[in-house]
Amino acid sequence: MKLTAIKEAAVPIKSDIRNAFIDFSQMTTSVVKIETDVVRAGKKFVGYGFNSNGRYAQRCSLQERFIPRLLAAPPEALLNDEGTNFDPFKAWDTMMKNEKPGGHGERSVAVGAIDMALWDVVAKIAEKPLYQVLAERFNHNQADRDVFVYAAGGYYYPEKDKAALCAEMKTYLDMGYNTVKIKIGGVSLDEDLARIEAVLELLDSNQSLAVDANGRFDLKTAVRYLEALEAYPLFWYEEPCDPLDYLLNAAVSAESRLPIATGENIFSLIDAKNLIRYGGLRPEKDYLQFDPALSYGLVEYIRILEMLNEHGWSWKRCIPHGGHQLTLHIAAGLGLGGNESYPHVFKPFGGFGDKAEIVEGKIKVSDQPGIGFELKSELMECFDQSF
Amino acid sequence: MKLTAIKEAAVPIKSDIRNAFIDFSQMTTSVVKIETDVVRAGKKFVGYGFNSNGRYAQRCSLQERFIPRLLAAPPEALLNDEGTNFDPFKAWDTMMKNEKPGGHGERSVAVGAIDMALWDVVAKIAEKPLYQVLAERFNHNQADRDVFVYAAGGYYYPEKDKAALCAEMKTYLDMGYNTVKIKIGGVSLDEDLARIEAVLELLDSNQSLAVDANGRFDLKTAVRYLEALEAYPLFWYEEPCDPLDYLLNAAVSAESRLPIATGENIFSLIDAKNLIRYGGLRPEKDYLQFDPALSYGLVEYIRILEMLNEHGWSWKRCIPHGGHQLTLHIAAGLGLGGNESYPHVFKPFGGFGDKAEIVEGKIKVSDQPGIGFELKSELMECFDQSF
User: Fold this and answer.
1) A244 touches chain B (CB under 8 A)
2) Chain-wide mean pLDDT for chain B?
């Protein structure tokens, strides 16, 4: 049982959208395909992976560091003790050989893309959907297939006025989402408040709105916004300040009547641990958005979840960034609070299977062995064109 | 006045050496050449840069993100207000457009390599050695050309016994270094202590030995080593634990009678600020090794130095990792505590000009306009072959 090939490519996900920090005019993402010699019913098992939006493709480190290490390893170095399946934890150790500590970015994305493909293969070989593999291994076999999802959008587009923003949000609500999220911090505070009020007008009492500043604000701006935002019943106030500025984060959290959400730009166990140690977040109120597809994969994410246990945080506080099927399975199999979704942007990487339906703000994770990419035709088309 | 081309290449610096964390069997580094349309005496000004050892070359992010942004910018976006020279701070803002916060690694190395080449050009156009440019702009025109340097080596080699280690150290002492550094943590504690004692035997009372654990230890091992190391008059105990584990670092520092040195795996202003805020280092005793050629360049390093001021740290506590001429100029022009040097490894990137001499543990920084790479024939040969 061995890996016979690992292929990678870069795919553009550029668009006109911008948030408070960047625009996506040149954005790319990495896609990975793992081929194995495991055959069943005449078919060879393959796995697919990619990284979440926002951090660019990682061709060189994939081609020069991580893929060669996996392919050079003796097969048993990548297998579980019984030799019956691949072991993503052992594969992680192999990939990360000769990598110095610190500096967790970029390579965390490359490793995340490979890790996703590995878990896809592992679950397929086990003939189970990934959520079930995870529930059995890490959650006392408890799983809940119905996962809370919220629709992330509300980016700033050129020429996009409040009417267009509301039309966008309305499509999400019509799809069945009951929580939507928009960007703030990319225009003046008054303009952002007008956008917020326009969207709030659309919502009934079961629906809510979250806002996302993408780490743009200094302390004064973060607090000025906080004072204004607290007038509204918002689901959360996301990344008010630099994601690594734990002191600033703690100051804002200490005074915020709104839940704070952060973590999408935190890419490793030690960075996550520092956020929990120093970031002043409130375990009964705030949300953690670590995204394994940017952060050394599900292997590292499981270590982050164990660390959260040790620090008295419930896994229900986790609602990962990324909007992909990997985190949907993690949410279902490990009892997270939910998952992000991008119904309209970052296609074909955001979103779930073609037939997936949002019912009262929840989606049922697929029962397909693996992660379920085969249920997403645009995504499979992208993979087929890339490799 | 504009940049006409920015070229990059990857150069192998692999060797048999290893430290406690990685081996260098596949190590590479990026080299950069900036060409301009600035002509004087019939010669066009060019600048060279590279990244320090340990973090691999960064071809893709250079080719796809940072170089295109600089070349696409209108020329005035990269010039000082007078239009008389390039402005590395403005160039930095241009390079980092559309880059999300957090995740400071890899790209910090790519930007560092370009930044080095920019400052080389800037100083050449100013017809001054870089240390003088820096002293004038940031240090009230005070400079000290004589810079303390220590010889870093003592890696673990296959088949290398204590005799070979001592022979290596002796060559450094014969060159004029009075402080040498060896690796620890890659063999048993007893074996490391034997290595330390062997080297200490070589030293006279004006000479000293530092040890470097490369972030390998957990708390128990870091403390076990600390207890043993405190018996010796060591110059410092470097990176006892994970460089981002501020809490662990603070625990070890709180009890250490030896100076602690750290920072080579800290790659941004916010990461450095967090180290100062949470890492428990002692401003009158410990050393900071932030390396601009891995950490978004001298532009970011100047921001780090300003942050250190704000936190009551003297710049004399800074002895950067990297062993290159850029940090030699920074040390001379901004009054740092000194600079690392690698007399025998990472050639041709470690070390100084061909004619540079170590006198009583100090080296005189060159007076050549720019950073002075032209004084280092092996390095120029490498650049000429690369581009």
Assistant:
1) yes
2) 96
